[in-house]
Amino acid sequence: MDARVNLILVCDLPIVAWGLREAINAQLCQLALVACVAHPSEVAQWIEADKRYVVLLDLDGGNGIEQIPTLLSGSNVRVLTLSTTEDLEQQDRAVLAGACGAISKRESVEVLCKAILKVHDGEYWVDRAATERILMAVAREKGRDHAEQEKIARLTRKEKQTIAAITLGSDASTMEIADRLNISEHTLRNHLTSIYAKLGVRNRMGLYAYAQKHALID
Predict the structure, then answer these.
(1) pLDDT digits (tens, 9 = 90+) for 63-72
(2) What is the mean pLDDT of the chain?
(3) 31 with 4: CB under 8 angstroms?
(4) Which of 15-29, 150-164, 198-212 has the lowest mean pLDDT?
(5) Helices marked H in the chain — which ranges?
(6) Whole-angstrom Cα distance, residue 59 to residue 67?
(7) How do 5-10 and 102-104 pair as beta strands?
(8) Is the dihedral of CA 124, 126, 129, 133 positive or negative?
(9) b/e per residue 49-76 (b: at least 16 CB within 10 A)
(10) In angstroms, rounded to a whole number, what is the distance separating the alpha carbons of residues 106 and 198?
(11) Interatomic CA distance for residues 103 and 11, integer angstroms
């Protein structure tokens, strides 16, 4: 079995990418730099199904945390983020988005290689304090999700039908929506008043956004 750790670098800052490439290649360790690309969308072409990869994602350029899920579309890929920031919230958000850790560019190349090897072996490159913060964030998010599900559960069948009719087209008039539901505009307004109160939204646009966020749109 190939003992090398297949590494793909994602960095859209040419000078930084060159420096990282040279630094990694100069290390006497088992890292094999498979490719250096500018955008996460380019990673897939370098992935082979029977091999494992660590993607080192530089967050200091135009690539962001929101692209981590795209990189994880392959089950044989693990992501480690790299940046100059000391912002703990950004590091935590990267892990919550699916990364296996975050490392600062202020660390030595030796520490970077160690982090890559750890991530490749299925471990996380986060300290105890970060672990506690992330677990607390997950717990808070679960609490919010539970609270929102309780709100949604209070909706009546007719109110859910109203939401479905509204989400068919956010620019439809009140009369058009009422016609879809075969009810009067007055009844529709009553339904909307009740829905707004239950879900904590203020208008139809807010309701549309809420329905998208919480998968109420079929």
Answers:
(1) 999 999 888 8
(2) 85
(3) yes
(4) 198-212
(5) 14-25, 68-71, 88-96, 109-120, 128-153, 157-167, 174-181, 185-199, 204-213
(6) 10
(7) unpaired
(8) negative
(9) eeebbbbbbbbebebebebbeebbeeee
(10) 49
(11) 15
- Euclidean distance between CA atoms 171 and 160, whole angstroms: 19
Q: Which two tokens stand for residue 21?
A: 């490439």
Burial of residue 16, with CB atoms counted within 10 A of its CB: 0-12 exposed, 13-18 middle, 19 or more buried = middle
E strand segments, 38-100: 53-58, 77-83
The identity of residue 19, as a single letter, is G
pLDDT of 55 reads: 96
Question: What's the token pair of residue 77?
Answer: 């890929």
The C-alpha atoms of residue 192 and residue 187 are separated, in whole angstroms, by 9
Residue 98's pLDDT band (cuts 50, 70, 90): confident
Tell me which DSSP letter residue 33 carries.
E
pLDDT at position 217 is: 67
Using one digit for the tens of pLDDT, what is the confidence trace for 134-174? 666 656 666 677 778 888 899 999 999 998 888 876 667 88
